[in-house]
C-alpha cells in the first residue's frame, strides 16, 4: 500500500464527485477525487464504506472500488436496488461537486492478501464486476504478465457493465481474454453467432474457459450465482486454496431468517439492554441484534450490513446470541464476547456494550 504524504485518508477528507454517467439503465458510475488531489490508497478488490444522511438519518453502505490503487480518482459503480434506500438515493441525488463522506476502506478479497498463480479467472455477474474490474485494470496498467480470463454474466447485452472498455482491453492485451454469458438474447438477429445464452454451470464454464481448473478464481456476484459456481468447483474437486470470493454479497442477512414481530407470541419476546445508553428494548426472539439497537436510535455504525466490514462490532456482556461466522473478528475477540450486530440474532435476554 502507498505510504506517501499525499495519500487520501478517509477519516479526514470527503470524496468530491467529479463526474457520473450511466453504465446501463439501472447502474451508474461515479468518479471521485480528493480535494487536494491526493492518491487513493487501497488494495485492488477492496470496498469503501460510505455514509450519507437521508431524511435526517445517517445511513452506511459498502461499495466495491473499481478503479486502480494509487490513482487520483476513485470509481464506484452502483446498481439500483428494488426498495433500496442508499444506492437509489445516490443514483438519484449525487451531482458533480457534491461531497460524500466515508469511514474507511476494507475487505480481504484483494490482490495483496489472496494468493494467486500465473493464470487467473476473474468471474463475475451483475454489479459483482466492480472488484474484479479493479483487479484487471491493476494488472494490465502495470504491464503484468499474469494471464487473465475475464468471464462476466449479465441479464442481456444491454446490461453488461463496462462493456466497451472490456472489449477494448481484450483487443489491446494478449494476456486478457473476455467472454460474456447472457441470460437472454435481446434479439436473435443481433446475437453474435458464438454468444452463449443461459446461466452458469459446469458445461458452460468448460466451454467459456477451457482451463478454468488450472486457474486461480476470483469470484463476485449475486448469491445464486456464487452458489452455482461454488457447487461446480466443489463437484470438480477444485483446489479451494485457489478460489477467492467476495463474501459480502453471498453472506446475506436473510440467512439469519429472523421472524417477523407480527408472528411473535408472548414467550418469544426477549430483552436487549445497553446500560451505557440506559436502553432496554423488547424484541422478537431471532431478531438481528443490529435491528434491536437501531430501533432505539443507538448510534451504531453498520456500513456493509453483511458481516464483512466489522463496523457494527459490539460486545455481549451477558446472555448469548447466534452469530454467522465472522472473519473480521479474531478468536480472542470472539472469546471476549465481541460479535457483529448485523450477523447475530438475539435468542435470549442479553446485555450489550459498544466498547
Ligand atoms: S455492518 Fe459490516 S460487519 Fe456488520
From TrEMBL:
**Cofactor(s) it depends on:** FAD
Q: Name one GO molecular function term.
A: 2 iron, 2 sulfur cluster binding
Q: Name one Pfam family in it.
A: FAD_binding_6
**What UniProt keywords apply to this chain's record, in alphabetical order?**
2Fe-2S, FAD, Flavoprotein, Iron, Iron-sulfur, Metal-binding, Oxidoreductase
Q: Tell me the ranges covered by the FAD-binding FR-type domain, including all copies.
A: 1-112
State the family it belongs to: In the N-terminal section; belongs to the FAD-binding oxidoreductase type 6 family.
Q: Per its record, how is this protein called by name?
A: Hybrid-cluster NAD(P)-dependent oxidoreductase
Provide the species name.
Answer: Zooshikella ganghwensis
Amino acid at each position: 500500500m502507498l505510504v506517501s504524504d499525499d495519500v487520501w485518508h478517509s477519516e479526514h477528507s470527503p470524496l468530491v464527485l467529479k463526474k457520473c454517467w450511466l453504465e446501463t439503465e439501472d447502474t451508474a458510475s461515479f468518479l471521485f477525487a480528493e480535494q487536494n488531489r491526493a492518491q487513493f490508497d487501497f488494495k485492488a478488490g477492496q470496498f469503501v464504506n460510505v455514509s450519507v444522511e437521508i431524511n435526517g438519518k445517517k445511513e452506511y453502505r459498502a461499495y466495491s472500488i473499481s478503479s486502480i490503487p494509487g490513482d487520483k480518482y476513485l470509481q464506484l459503480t452502483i446498481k439500483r436496488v428494488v426498495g433500496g434506500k442508499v444506492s437509489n438515493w445516490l443514483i438519484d441525488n449525487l451531482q458533480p461537486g457534491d461531497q460524500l463522506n466515508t469511514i474507511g476502506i476494507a475487505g480481504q478479497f484483494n490482490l495483496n492478501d489472496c494468493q494467486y498463480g500465473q493464470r487467473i479467472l476473474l468471474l463475475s455477474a451483475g454489479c459483482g464486476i466492480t472488484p474484479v474490474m479493479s483487479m484487471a485494470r491493476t494488472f494490465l496498467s502495470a504491464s503484468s504478465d499474469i494471464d487473465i480470463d475475464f468471464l462476466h454474466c449479465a441479464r442481456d447485452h444491454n446490461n453488461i457493465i463496462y462493456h466497451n472498455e472490456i472489449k477494448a482491453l481484450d483487443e489491446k492485451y494478449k494476456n486478457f481474454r473476455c467472454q460474456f454469458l447472457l441470460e437472454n438474447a435481446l434479439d436473435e438477429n443481433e446475437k453474435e453467432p458464438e454468444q452463449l445464452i443461459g446461466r452458469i454451470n459446469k458445461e458452460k464454464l468448460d466451454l467459456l474457459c477451457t482451463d478454468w481448473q488450472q486457474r486461480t478464481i476470483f469470484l463476485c456476484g449475486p448469491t445464486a450465482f456464487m452458489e452455482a459456481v461454488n457447487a461446480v468447483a466443489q463437484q470438480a474437486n477444485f483446489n479451494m486454496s485457489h478460489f477467492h470470493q467476495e463474501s459480502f454479497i453471498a453472506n446475506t442477512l436473510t440467512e439469519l431468517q429472523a421472524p417477523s414481530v407480527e408472528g411473535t407470541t408472548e414467550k418469544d419476546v426477549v430483552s436487549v439492554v445497553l446500560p451505557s445508553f440506559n436502553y432496554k428494548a423488547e424484541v422478537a426472539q431471532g431478531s438481528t441484534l443490529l435491528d434491536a439497537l437501531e430501533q432505539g436510535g443507538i448510534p451504531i455504525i453498520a456500513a456493509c450490513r453483511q458481516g464483512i466490514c466489522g463496523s457494527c462490532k459490539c460486545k455481549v456482556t451477558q446472555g448469548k446470541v447466534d452469530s454467522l461466522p465472522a472473519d473480521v473478528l479474531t478468536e480472542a475477540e470472539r472469546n471476549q464476547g465481541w460479535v457483529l450486530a448485523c450477523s447475530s440474532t438475539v435468542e435470549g435476554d442479553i446485555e450489550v456494550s459498544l466498547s
